[in-house]
Design a protein that fits this description.
The chain has 107 residues and is an alpha+beta fold. It is built from 3 helices and 6 strands; from the N terminus they run H-H-E-E-E-E-E-E-H. A 6-stranded antiparallel beta sheet has the order 4-3-2-1-5-6, with no helix packed on it. The protein is globular and about 30 Å long. The chain starts with a helix and ends in an 8-residue tail after the last helix. About 9% of the residues have low confidence.
Length: 107
């Protein structure tokens, strides 16, 4: 009977989808994601959003409607894909290929 209880008490797997959702957003590829600027040194940038089409060490290029706009990472704080995690651009100023392998502290 104890063996049956142990089997019954096993937590159910939630599938691979949950594993991917729990990955740190800092380490994911951002190209194709929707970026929303939530804070900035320049108040005219707050509230702008678009699809990330390119990323360099210091900039993010967004597609806003029909035009592309380049933002300095150090000038903005943003969210990606309606995620609750707020990312400070100044803390992710490295090449995208280096950012995806770096460890970040939890905020």
């Amino acid at each position: 009977f104890q063996a049956q209880d142990a089997i019954r008490d096993q937590p159910r797997s939630r599938g691979l989808g949950d594993v991917y959702k729990r990955q740190d957003i800092h380490n994911n590829t951002w190209i194709g994601s929707t970026l929303d600027v939530v804070a900035s040194k320049d108040p005219t940038l707050v509230g702008r959003s678009g699809i990330v089409v390119d990323e360099t060490k210091n900039t993010l290029v967004l597609l806003e409607g029909e035009k592309t706009v380049t933002f300095s990472k150090t000038a903005i704080t943003f969210t990606l894909d309606d995620n609750k995690v707020v990312i400070q651009g100044a803390l992710v100023s490295q090449r995208p290929e280096d950012r995806t392998h770096r460890k970040y502290r939890k905020a």
